Amino acid sequence: MDRRLIVGIALASVAAFSAAGCGSDSKEAKEAPEVVWAGKACGALKQTSALPVPQIEPANVAKSKASLVNMLEGIGQRMRTMEMALAGLGKPPVPNGDALYRTTMGRLTSTHSGVTTAKRRLEQAKVTDAKSLKGAMDQMKKAFGSYNGYQGPQADLRADPALNAAFAKAPACQTAKG
Fold first, then answer.
1. What is the pLDDT of residues 7-63, one digit of tens each?
2. What are the C-alpha distances in Å from 70 to residues 42, 51, 73?
3. What is the Cα 143 distance to its own chain's centre?
4. How far apart are CA 61 and CA 65, in angstroms?
5. For residues 61 and 132, is the Cβ–Cβ distance under 8 A?
6. Which stretches of the chain are DSSP H helices?
7. DSSP designation for 56
8. Which residues of 22-41 are buried (b: 16+ CB within 10 A; e: fewer)?
């Protein structure tokens, strides 16, 4: 037999078996839509990278400043990843889901903006000694203020009782922190 024919038959068989596994017997199809959505949200929120820990060395203010900028960049990237992931999911399928989604995305975007502003201010600060580093860090803290009390999009979404229950039921959320 022709090798291409055998490969074609093998690929068609794999595709047929794969499609058979996507029927209504899947566990996801049995879950309520809000539980499926919550599971996808938890999976999306897990896709963030670890944050760099800043190394503050009073003897090397340039290195300290760069380390803080790197940390803020990491936080900004993490928030950008969450924004894109949640935007891809759209609003949760619960009553008042549209308003809840807008509020959650608004807080995430606003907090991300504060982090970006803090990073920009720190990057632009002239740091030549420990005193100027402290001044730059104080300015960074002011812009960074919105981040300090922010618990993340999952906390905002869990404010809705129906969605909170869905997060509790979704297997993907059992170990998720977001």
1. 333 333 333 333 333 333 455 558 899 999 999 999 888 876 677 788 888 788 899
2. 26, 9, 5
3. 21
4. 6
5. yes
6. 3-20, 27-30, 33-45, 61-89, 97-124, 130-148, 153-157, 161-169
7. -
8. eeeeeeeeebeebbbbbbbb
Q: Which two tokens stand for residue 123?
A: 């990057």
- pTM, entire model: 0.74
33 token code pair: 């839509």
φ/ψ region of 99 (left if φ > 0, alpha if ψ in -120 to 50, else beta) reads: alpha
Report whether 93 contacts 41 (CB < 8 A).
Answer: no
Task: Give 82-88's long-range contacts (Cβ < 8 A, gap of 24+).
Answer: 82/44, 82/45, 82/48, 82/108, 82/152, 82/153, 82/178, 83/108, 83/109, 83/112, 85/41, 85/44, 85/45, 85/47, 86/41, 86/44, 86/45, 86/153, 88/44
